[in-house]
Amino acid sequence: MAETSNPQRVLSEEILADARRQGERLVRRAKSDAEQIVATAEAEDEKDHRERIEAARAEAQRRSGLVLATVAVEAGRMRVRRAEEILQTIYDEARKRLERREGFDYRQTVVALAAGAISRMEGNRFVLEISAADREALGAGLAEEVCRRVGRNDFDVTVNTEGAAAGGGVIVRDDEGRQVWDNSFAGRLERFWPALRPDIGAAAWPLEAQRPEGKSGAPASTPGGAKELLC
Prior knowledge:
The protein is 63% helix and 9% strand. By secondary structure, the chain is an alpha+beta fold. The protein folds into 2 domains: 7-100; 105-231, 2-Layer Sandwich (hypothetical protein PF0899 fold), CATH 3.30.2320. Strands 2-1-3-4 form a 4-stranded mixed sheet. Helix 1 packs across helix 5 and helix 2 crosses helix 4 (142-150).
């Protein structure tokens, strides 16, 4: 007669087998979850790494752009400062040459400047103010020569050394002192310098002068300024 199975033993074995199966499922799930967590962490770390690299690259490009912009601005400032220094040197040299009467007939220049002023003024009595040294150097007959240059015989011109500007040229006043025309060299150079600067700039920096307006520190050319300085 076959041995009868023990029901309690069978039940225990089934419970243990079920527990093992559940344990195995839990282990597999835990392993899968762990692998997923690790994969997610690695992906997030890779993404964060890429984002940090991109951020660093963007910051490097931004700083490089700022440096380049700063260099361009500073180069422009240096070019403008250098141009102004050169123009100031030219201004100073022009004034010295005018004071030394270099390259032109001084007497004829003074006559032309005086006649030009009188022809633009009202009245018929005028005073030519020149330096005492010029009056002695130019000699007599200056007033008469100015009258002939103007081409009128209905006015009177006298010469005075009081109030004359230093450096050469002539200051013309009417007899009542209401009208004054400063044709001294210093006064004319000061007035004409804004018009002369573009001419000089166009000659000194021809490529800059050819650029469209607003693209360069060099001014556009204004012909005729230099021609009018002494006449």
